[in-house]
Design goal:
The chain folds into two domains: 275 residues, 3-Layer(bba) Sandwich (FAD/NAD(P)-binding domain); 145 residues, Elongation Factor Tu (Ef-tu), domain 3. The relative contact order is 0.17. The strands form four sheets. Strands 6-2-1-7-17-16 form a six-stranded mixed sheet. A six-stranded antiparallel sheet has the order 10-11-12-13-9-14. The protein has twelve helices and 17 strands. The chain has 445 residues and is an alpha+beta fold. The chain is globular and about 65 Å long. The protein binds flavin-adenine dinucleotide. Flavin-adenine dinucleotide (FAD) binds next to helix 1, strand 2, strand 8, strand 15 and helix 10.
Length: 445
């Protein structure tokens, strides 16, 4: 087959889409605008760069996010394979060395004989079968072009958490521990706060200078990625019940729980860098340095990246998209990634896998693939394409998106187990019908 499928955007979704197309034996041209043109948050020229946290969320199969990963492993996802290969300790979460992960994905794409990677900002959508996976920070020119097909955009704000070097921290004031002792004990460094230290810290954030919004902007946040200053504005204890939650983190050799804790997650395989978990912020950089240096052990902290904040765009998927991720009005055009209204790295990968596979099926004249609603991928895609368009918001994979069990099960743990079992059976059946799942890759919790 000589037709070349176009993928615009070599991020999480676009990289997975391009790989799946190529693995099906079709040729693909992947346009990535970096390093010629960058976005406000990307820092490298690698494909599949993780812009904020280095965690891909839970790896535990009884959680919706863990189940989604399990499904993607079965589907031979390139990005899940590279994530597993470049894992760093993070308890039950799958966290990666971001540099090695993105480098591994980029090399795999560049070495695939069916993929041409072109470093260019695409400003127009070609007439061939095309996947647009340009993410929440799509370049201005392409955003304008997309408006012709998708109308006006919805948006929300997302923020990046800071990263520090381990050698600059005073480790005598910090301790290693994973919450409730789950997973590797060396996965997290913890900075414990007394009540007095906590209150001083929170008051400093309340009074901090922040990057102002433009006059026409009306900030809307994604609840799971709220900047810390927005949290403290809701009350003095909000951080202690959010990112500074101390439960399950007793001080070493004691049962004593600190008043508040900041967790630092290992950022690279060498263990030389750590990020402040849940500490996304839009405070001015000077303020971040001043205030974060009051964290126990941080008086000499060296920041290799400060927190930043950005406006993310997404389309109104329920009105525009089929469950195959093709546009209802233009079946040759597919969208994938955050721009569809899925939220989160692994969700982006899943949508890239699906759009890639469906682009291939369109070239071959086959009907589009729709996952069963009882799977994590199917429940997510069904939600974004059937939600109420009036109140549509980006969403992570979660158990509330799955159809209820029949008969209903009251006990939450038992219910989730049964939902997981049902999803696994549905995937097995789909696999045997399609004959496309080459090997079963096991969970690696
Ligand atoms: C500030 C911020 C913080 C976030 N933090 C997290 C987090 O901690 N955890 C999480 O799970 N999710 C997070 N997200 C949400 C989301 O998971 C990521 O944005 C994710 O990278 C989106 O994947 P994607 O493939 O849709 O887009 P991206 O990974 O952003 O990929 C899009 C690619 O398209 C390229 N591109 C854009 N326009 C063009 C063009 N015209 N031509 C060619 N190439 C183009 C870009 O350079 C980029 O490489 C965050 C998002 C933002 C903006």
């Amino acid at each position: 087959m000589s037709q070349e499928i176009v993928v615009i955007g070599g991020g999480l979704a676009g990289s997975e889409a391009a790989w799946q197309i190529a693995e099906q034996g079709l040729r693909v041209v992947l346009y990535e605008m970096r390093p010629q043109v960058s976005t406000p948050v990307h820092q490298t020229s690698y494909c599949a760069e993780l812009v904020c946290s280095n965690s891909l969320g839970s790896n535990f199969p009884q959680k919706a996010s863990g189940l989604l990963k399990e499904e993607l492993r079965r589907l031979n996802s390139l990005l899940l394979r590279k994530a597993d290969e470049n894992r760093v300790p993070a308890g039950q979460a799958l966290a990666v060395d971001r540099e090695k992960f993105a480098q591994g994905v980029t090399e795999a794409l560049m070495n695939h004989p069916n993929i041409r990677l072109i470093r260019e900002e695409k400003k127009e959508i070609p007439d061939e079968i095309t996947i647009v996976a340009t993410g929440p920070l799509t370049s201005h020119a392409l955003t304008e072009e997309l408006k012709k097909h998708c109308g006006t955009y919805l948006y929300y704000y997302d923020a990046v958490a800071p990263i520090v070097t381990k050698e600059s921290l005073n480790l005598s004031k910090l301790y290693f521990a994973s919450r409730y002792g789950h997973g590797d004990d060396k996965a997290y460094l913890n900075a414990p706060f007394t009540k007095e230290e906590y209150e001083v810290f929170v008051h400093a954030i309340v009074g901090s200078e922040r990057v102002p919004y433009a006059p026409h902007e009306d900030p809307k946040f994604f609840e799971a990625c709220m900047p810390i200053e927005e949290l403290v504005d809701r009350g003095i204890d909000t951080l202690r019940f959010g990112p500074m939650k101390p439960v399950g983190l007793p001080l070493p050799g004691t049962h004593r729980i600190p008043y508040g804790v900041i967790q630092l997650r290992q950022e690279n395989i060498e263990g030389t860098l750590y990020n402040l978990v849940g500490f996304q912020t839009r405070m001015k950089w000077g303020e971040q340095e001043r205030i974060f240096r009051t964290i126990p052990g941080f008086s000499e902290a060296e920041f290799i990246r400060f927190g930043v904040m950005h406006r993310n765009i997404f389309v109104n998927a329920p009105t525009l998209l089929e469950e195959t991720l093709a546009l209802k009005k233009k079946p040759k055009l597919f969208l994938a990634g955050q721009i569809t209204g899925v939220e989160g790295y692994v969700e982006d990968v899943a949508s890239g896998w699906l759009a890639g596979m469906n682009a291939v099926r369109r070239v071959k004249g086959e009907s589009g693939l729709v996952f069963p609603r009882t799977t994590a991928i199917g429940s997510l895609m069904h939600h974004i394409t059937h939600a109420n368009p009036e109140s549509f918001q980006p969403i992570n994979a979660n158990f509330s998106l799955f159809p209820p069990l029949d008969p209903p099960v009251k006990d939450k743990t038992l219910r989730q187990q049964q939902v997981v079992e049902r999803a696994r059976k549905a995937m097995e059946q789909l696999g045997s019908e399609m004959g496309c799942f080459k090997e079963e890759r096991v969970m690696n919790v």
